[in-house]
Design a protein that fits this description.
Number of helices: 14
Number of domains: 3
Oligomer: single chain
CATH topology of the largest domain: Rossmann fold
Strand content: 15-25%
Shape: elongated
Order of helices and strands: HHHHHHEEEEHHEHEHEEHHEHHEE
CATH superfamily of the largest domain: Vaccinia Virus protein VP39
CATH class of the largest domain: Alpha Beta
Radius of gyration: 23 Å
Strand order of the largest sheet: 1-2-3-4-7-6-5-8-9-11-10
Distance between the termini: 31 Å
């Protein structure tokens, strides 16, 4: 049986957290102020249509509202996304849990028992991450205006091949799983998660993780101002994705749009970390570039022209499935989106950037063992 009094207290907390009076809150929900008063005093419950509107306005699930599960009580100075993520955080050095500290108005930091302190700068939780020396990828975006040009660019047409294209396939998996927490590994400018965010219609916390604090602070502005979804709480973490500052088994989905591959030599440590932070039975949903066959003449020529090492990230589907099993994933489902390109006739490698685009593209869904 639903506890009307408890529901009423949660409604009052949500209203106060938004800074609304009962009258303003009632106007937002198209009900009377007397109706709001009755809810908050436990004399009545909202009807189903109003509950749905209340869920949308307050960005809270009906289950959390009616039953109290996963209900987050607002903390002054801490936005809801950061509040949801804070219990999941651990120090990347000592692996102990981090405690939230609010030293003063507008100031937030996290600390562990060993004395490590991590600040929130420009809305980004900064774990002291640094981009790899000599490969400061973020510097190719000169400023925020250049960043916006990249966000609005339709992208490489090669990646929109397939029917459906890879982003739609990833979205269908995520829609089916309906996660409450999504970790975006090596998120970059968030080009892949954009497609997912604009379609989500249930409460979700999205954690954007990347080495570059510079890109993350621009992501924060962009997703707040131009790509906002009221169901989605966004959190930004500048960290090494091969040593995530997250507790074991704490996220519902790990998402990667080229993120694993962008980690270079840290690719497999990144996949291993993804497995660690996933809850038992949860999934990693990501795209992966694979070769058709090491013995294929076209494949051999591509490897020669690109001067790539066959011992690196050049896997065929069987090799990738084997690596996933070694990491600990119970099963991995691969869906091919498009084939490897035919090798050129001449001896010139045709791609200046995105050097792996000649490879076949797959969507992988890897599931962790259910404890």
């Amino acid at each position: 049986m639903i506890d009307k009094g408890a529901v009423g207290r949660r409604i009052a907390i949500l209203r106060q957290g938004l800074g609304y009076s009962q009258a303003v809150f009632a106007e937002k929900l198209h009900v009377s102020a007397q109706a709001v008063s009755k809810w908050e005093t436990g004399l009545a419950l909202p009807d189903i249509e109003v509950l749905l509107n209340l869920s949308w306005v307050c960005k809270v699930s009906l289950h959390a509202l009616l039953e109290g599960e996963d209900f987050v009580y607002p903390i002054p100075g801490l936005d809801r996304g950061m509040q949801r993520v804070s219990p999941l955080l651990v120090c990347p050095q000592c692996r102990k849990a981090l405690a939230t500290r609010i030293p003063g108005p507008g100031e937030i930091c996290f600390s562990c028992g060993c004395g490590c302190i991590y600040d929130v700068a420009d809305g980004v939780l900064h774990f002291g991450a640094r981009e790899v020396t000599g490969e400061l990828w973020s510097l190719w975006l000169r400023n925020y205006q250049h960043y916006l040009q990249e966000q609005r660019h339709p992208g490489n047409p090669r990646y929109w091949q397939g029917d459906p294209h890879y982003r739609e396939v990833m979205w269908q998996h995520i829609k089916r799983l309906r996660p409450r927490t999504i970790l975006v590994m090596a998120c970059g400018t968030g080009s892949g998660i954009k497609y997912i965010i604009e379609r989500i219609n249930w409460p979700v916390t999205v954690i954007m993780a990347d080495l570059s604090h510079r890109i993350l602070k621009w992501n924060r502005v962009f997703f707040a101002e131009e790509w906002n979804n009221p169901y989605v709480d966004m959190v930004y973490m500048a960290c090494d994705c091969a040593a995530l500052p997250l507790a074991d088994g704490c996220v519902d989905i790990v998402f990667s749009n080229g993120g694993f591959e962008s980690m270079g030599t840290k690719m497999m440590p990144g996949v291993t970390e993804a497995h660690r932070v996933l809850a038992p039975g949860a999934h990693a949903v990501y795209n992966i570039s694979l070769i058709e066959n090491h013995a294929n003449p076209d494949t051999q020529k591509w490897i020669h022209l690109a001067q790539l090492s066959t011992s690196g990230n050049l896997n065929d589907s069987a090799q990738w499935l084997a690596k996933c099993r070694l990491v600990g994933f119970e099963k991995t489902e691969l869906t091919k989106i498009y084939d490897e390109l035919p090798a050129p006739q001449d001896e010139i490698f045709p791609f200046e950037n995105e050097v792996l685009q000649w490879m076949a593209e797959f969507i992988a869904v890897s599931q962790k063992y259910n404890a």
